[in-house]
Amino acid sequence: MFDQVTMSLNVDPLIRSALQEDITSEDVSTNSVMPQPKTGEVDLICKQDGIICGLQIFARVFEMLDAKTKVELFVQDGDAVHVGQPLAKVTGDIRVLLCGERTALNYLQRMSGIATYTHQIASLLEGTGIRLLDTRKTTPNNRIFEKYAVRIGGGNNHRYNLTDGVLLKDNHIGAAGGVKEAVALAKAYAPFVRKIEVEVETLAMVQEAVDAGADIIMLDNMDHDQMAEAIRLIDGRAEVEVSGNITEENLAKLSGLAVDYVSSGALTHSAPIMDISLKNLHPVE
């Protein structure tokens, strides 16, 4: 759950921007059929099995439009939900319920889809000791929501943004003139509390990264035999992350290797939304 400080400083401005995108001056459809305030209620219904996530954000959309809106939740983030299950009831000005519906559902469907997909992948790693990580391949201005959804689904967050840690990828290495040079420059510049991670594509780069004193070595798009040899070369002198070509079949093969982390951009960039609807809107006295 997002704390009050995070909500006020980082979440509310994004929700407000999303609402402004959807309502530039007025909701013409709603104002046509409901020119005056009238209290109503609507049900939030699950239409697909999965892991629910984003209920706090769903509720906040309506509360920002009208603080008097009441959202009664029947489940909580992280719960497994099923087709036909009632998830919440929203009560308030019908005009608010109508004009906030799409934005609220967009957040909830997207976040629940990510949590559901992450849960599916994380379950394949159960018992292996390997931690599942996300990446920075997130929707612009939605990273805070998408990375939260990964955690709810049982995954872990890699660095949140470029300030969080040092990750020397192929272009950083090319700019510096090699792995050795890139790591040396990072050690000289970055705060000592920052770990230094190096992305490698060949066994020669693995050896360079080990010799240079990298803290984490990311094996990028290597096949099983290459990974096994790379881990032999590392020999416990750095943590090992595997990235690229993360499929269900490949995950099963990792259990026999000394891998610490698996990172997957697909957790956020390829997760399908979860089908959830607001239904049965009606006036109440």
Description of the structure:
Strand 10, helix 10 and strand 11 form a beta-alpha-beta unit. The protein contains eleven helices and twelve strands. With 285 residues, it is an alpha/beta fold. 44% of the residues lie in helices and 20% in strands. The chain starts with a helix and ends with a strand. The model has no long low-confidence stretch (mean pLDDT 96). It has two domains: 131 residues, Quinolinate phosphoribosyl transferase, N-terminal domain (Aldehyde Oxidoreductase, domain 3); 144 residues, Aldolase class I (TIM Barrel).
Number of strands: 12
The secondary-structure element order is HHEEHEEEHEHEHHEHEHEHEHE
Strand order of the largest sheet: 6-11-10-9-8-7
Report the top-level CATH class of the largest domain.
Alpha Beta
Give the total of domains. 2
Name of the CATH superfamily of the largest domain:
Aldolase class I
CATH architecture tag of the largest domain = Alpha-Beta Barrel
Low-pLDDT windows of residues: none
Record the SSE blueprint.
Elements: H1 4-22, H2 28-33, E1 39-46, E2 50-51, H3 55-65, E3 70-73, E4 80-81, E5 86-93, H4 94-123, E6 131-133, H5 143-152, E7 166-168, H6 170-176, H7 179-189, E8 196-200, H8 203-212, E9 216-220, H9 224-234, E10 239-243, H10 248-254, E11 261-263, H11 266-269, E12 276-283
Helix pairs in contact: 1-3, 3-4, 4-5, 6-7, 7-8, 8-9
Features:
285 residues; alpha/beta; Aldehyde Oxidoreductase, domain 3; TIM Barrel; 2 domains; six-stranded parallel β-sheet; four-stranded antiparallel β-sheet; elongated
